[in-house]
Amino acid sequence: MAVLKGVRVLDLGGIGPGPFAAMMLADMGAEVIRLDPPKTAGQPMNPVLDRGKRSMTADFKSEAGIALARSLAAKSDIVIEGFRPGAAERLGLGPDDLHALNPALVYGRITGYGQDGPKSQKAGHDLGYIASSGLLNQLGRAGGPPQFPANLIGDFGGGGMLLVVGVLGALTSARTTGIGTVVDTAMIDGANLLYSMMHGFSEMGMWRHDARGHNLLDSGAPFYDVYPTADDRYVSVACIEPAFFAEFVRTLDIEDRLPEPLGQIDHWQPKHWPIMRPVFAEALASHTLAELEELFSGHDACVEPVRTMAEAKTDPHNQHRGLFYTDETGIDQPAPAPRFGQATAPTSTGAATSTGTASAGQPRRAPVIGADTDAVIAELGL
């Protein structure tokens, strides 16, 4: 389902989180037009982040380029920009400039430190943003340095994806009120928000921000961790709840090695963790990854092999879901998400039924830069 069909998004250009947000909007059916400098015309775009988009060139150093961008914004529902604060305003493409042309426009902004504050003009990248937010110091094992999962937290989870949430919320408001909104998406804000559950746990006495690697979900608990196997692979264990923990222990046949009887032990108690960890590690290391897969097959113990990307692409469940697809040029793509299913009319019992979930189909391949300039100008009468 193309749930955003009829929505036009203008991407003023940028890297990382802005293009990712625009990709998600395009995946959901929006018409996304990205602007790039004329000197890059003919160059390939990112084959994944720029899929499903239309590409135009506009020279922001010329009056004609600015006029083209303004004309496009006047006919768009959403504008996305990722410049340093104040840059769009200096170009005549700031929120006030474009709202004068299109009062209902949703103006989405994505930066590392936000539109205001002492660091708003400071250069940076994902790693610095999550470091500044306090989140980086929470990630990693006890006794080691902080660890980071590539640039997934600041750029994408706390940046681009949060921008999508913001502009779609603002679009709903604009269509109700006719009044546009400026969406200030800062990656430090988003990274901090992603840590909400742990902030809550801290207030409940269930988490210590000053004890990296000693908490329930940060490799402190032995029942929520990754372990090596006999063939130098890794297996993930996440048996948090008592029923899953009991199934894990029984399947490995290590019940007699627990510090207390299985029916009585509170495995969330940190005092038990130093005793349980070597027991789990030894039992898991005595099996190959394939043996563990077979051993835990059919058991709800929250145990999963750590797959390589190549293995993930051939996993039967992932193939059933269509988690990956290969486009017409042979490029491997992550499938659009989430999926949407249309509800049907209520049944005789009064309960609505659903057609289930389905993807919107494979997005168009990314164009070369500038490929759609003439076509868009003609279509919109610019």
From TrEMBL:
Pfam families noted in UniProt: CoA_transf_3 (PF02515)
GO molecular function: transferase activity
Residue ranges, annotated region (Disordered): 329-367
UniProt organism field: Brevibacterium aurantiacum
Name this protein carries in UniProt: CoA transferase
InterPro entries referenced in this protein's UniProt entry, alphabetically: CoA-transferase_III, CoA-Trfase_fam_III, CoA-Trfase_III_dom3_sf, CoA-Trfase_III_dom_1_sf
PANTHER family for this protein: ALPHA-METHYLACYL-COA RACEMASE, SUCCINYL-COA--D-CITRAMALATE COA-TRANSFERASE
Record-linked Gene3D superfamilies: Crotonobetainyl-coa:carnitine coa-transferase, domain 1, formyl-coa transferase, domain 3
Low complexity compositional bias, start-end: 343-361
